[in-house]
Design goal:
Length: 322
């Protein structure tokens, strides 16, 4: 993409920015500043970089194999239905299982989110570098002043620093994941998914048993009250984060897309210049990054809710056993 952009930039400048060149500039903008930065480029990168990604299910299975007390754990006890027949050691192993799944899910989604951001940031950085190249060539032929050139250079410097910082966060997340997976040198080439799963169409609803377990009831044991309170708050946090992620997916992202399309129409009508249009890349980028953050928070909270509900149901069963 970058080679094509630079070649097209050369053609645009060589035409001395006559009115007829507006069409060619429009082609350039479509390449480096359109919504395709996120929607199309990222899809093609996924296909190239993720032929056989290490999935969340594989990560969970590996974590359980390495961390779970299989001597005490009773396979099939996850449903809680046979909880009354479990020994204290088996109940402890069941609780440990839910904690391992949560920690693994959290570590996996944090890594995937940062990888998704990096892929997106690479495309945005391409666009900013192309804009800077355009600025430099326009400055040479006298179409912009030095102030405009310096402003564009500043944007490029900041974007490179942002990309470098994101790389650092990604490496930190990768190391956390390596520790979680107990990887060795044979696993260093294992890669994860490039995109987070999208939030579902409908939010999760609690079952009758779950609602009964998180209710106050007539138990005032401090630890039980704490567990129920934690589970209720966890569910409320889940609902909040689900609505935020869903709003980004169904409302904010589509609205940003329409804004970008309107800016492109204004550019075609010569109401704004190419640099105003390229500023839209920053708005697009921030919206996408915010969506990734919101979706990550939702997915992690969903896993946290599973753990908290398991904890409170086991506590509820323990009380009945006693």
């Amino acid at each position: 993409m970058k080679k094509f952009v630079i070649a097209l930039l050369g053609f645009v400048i060589s035409q001395a920015f006559a009115n007829s060149v507006w069409v060619e500039q429009n082609k350039l903008v479509g390449e480096i500043g359109g919504w395709r930065v996120y929607s199309k480029e990222q899809v093609s990168r996924e296909r190239l970089n993720n032929q056989n990604p290490f999935t969340l299910n594989q990560a969970t299975e590996r974590s359980l194999n390495h961390q779970l007390d299989w001597v005490s754990y009773l396979p099939g006890s996850e449903s809680i239905s046979d909880y009354y027949f479990l020994t204290p050691a088996q109940r402890s192993a069941l609780q440990k299982r839910s904690s391992i799944i949560y920690e693994t899910t959290k570590s996996y989604y944090e890594l995937v989110a940062l990888k998704e951001k990096l892929i997106h940031m690479e495309d945005v950085l391409d666009a900013v570098e192309a804009a800077s190249e355009l600025s430099a060539r326009m400055y040479k032929v006298g179409n912009i002043n030095e102030l405009a050139l310096l402003k564009q250079s500043k944007v490029l410097y900041k974007k490179r620093l942002e990309y470098k910082a994101l790389q650092g966060k990604y490496l930190e997340a990768k190391e956390r994941f390596i520790r979680q997976m107990n990887f060795d040198s044979r696993d260093v080439r294992i890669d994860v998914d490039a995109r987070l799963p999208e939030p579902p169409k409908e939010q999760r609803k609690l079952s009758t048993k779950e609602l009964k377990a998180i209710g106050l009831g007539d138990i005032n044991n401090p630890e039980s009250v704490k567990n129920r309170s934690t589970a209720r708050l966890s569910y409320e946090s889940y609902l909040e984060k689900y609505q935020i992620a869903k709003s980004y997916k169904e409302e904010i992202l589509p609205t940003q897309k329409k804004i970008s399309e309107e800016n492109l129409l204004r550019y075609n009508g010569m109401l704004i210049d190419v640099f105003h249009l390229l500023e839209d890349v920053e708005a697009q980028s921030k919206t996408v990054m915010d969506y990734i953050d919101a979706n990550t928070a939702y997915l992690i909270q969903s896993a946290r809710l599973d753990k908290d509900l398991m904890d409170v149901q086991m506590d509820f069963s323990n009380i009945n056993v006693r």
